[in-house]
Amino acid sequence: MSQKVDIAGVKFDAVRYDDVITAVEVFVSQTHQKHMIATPNPEMVVDASQRNSFKNLLNSTAMLVPDGIGILWASYYLSLPYKKNRVTEWVQRWSSLLKVFFKHSDIYSILPQRVTGSDLLFKIVDASQRNHWQIYLLGAAPGIASIAIDRLLQKYPDAIFAGSFAGTPAETHEDELCERINQAQPDILFVAYGSPAQEEWIHRNLDKLDTVKVAIGVGGAIDFAAGKAKRAPNWMQKMGLEWLWRLIRQPRRYKRIWNATFRFIKLIRKYKKVCHQVEKKAKA
Ligand code: UDP
Description:
This protein is of the alpha/beta class and 284 residues long. The protein has one domain (1-277). It contains 13 helices and 8 strands. The strands form 2 sheets. The protein has a 6-stranded parallel sheet, with helices on both faces. It has a two-stranded antiparallel sheet with strand order 1-2.
């Protein structure tokens, strides 16, 4: 069991990619159990802070991995002593944010690694070669998942894909999608419908999927694997600037990016204050 880290009520697992692969190996070997892994980013934490049902759904999953440097920043910032004075709080907050840009080790002191859905897709496909897992890709625009499969097979020739289908996250299509997936008999299902649709889809349907042992919501990962969308250059990812890359490439996402940055920072600041007040009350 990994250590849980509470970020505004969403309880993340302090894990690295290798730990997730080990957990998937255990999950797939458990005959009668099914597990969901979610990859929340700051935007999803903001969403969860506004909707208890979504927060509870995320916290009920087998594993929550931090998909976003903002989550790692929050874990570090929340671990620092509470500052009552506005100026010292401001200095503390901005100096902790600056550490993100300089990839300072403090940022990785609580949650050890950023574990993205996009990289997880590649790493699990790689691990599937030695474990003989069959993989199914659900979601992304029609035709994109089969391009992703072709490209993944070039890189991981021993991987086995049980199938793929675009479909839609609409509840009216669920039975048809479950039927398709059941016919393909995969062990692992990746769902790319964006959040919260993909997590809600998995939550509603996992029990209906006969052979699936692990289901993971991966957002735009199939688009990236197909080469349809380009990920930020490595230096930008390392500096925690993937959101800026997405803003430049897809300006229509500005509202989502606002939520993932400024709104998220405001939420975490408020959460730190609430935690401090609760602690103070408990001590009194
Ligand atoms: N998508 C889909 N059907 C829908 C809505 C979204 O297949 O009804 C797909 C979309 O094509 C994309 C993915 O869901 O491949 C979501 O990507 P996005 O970049 O929004 O996810 P993020 O990485 O930001 O979570």
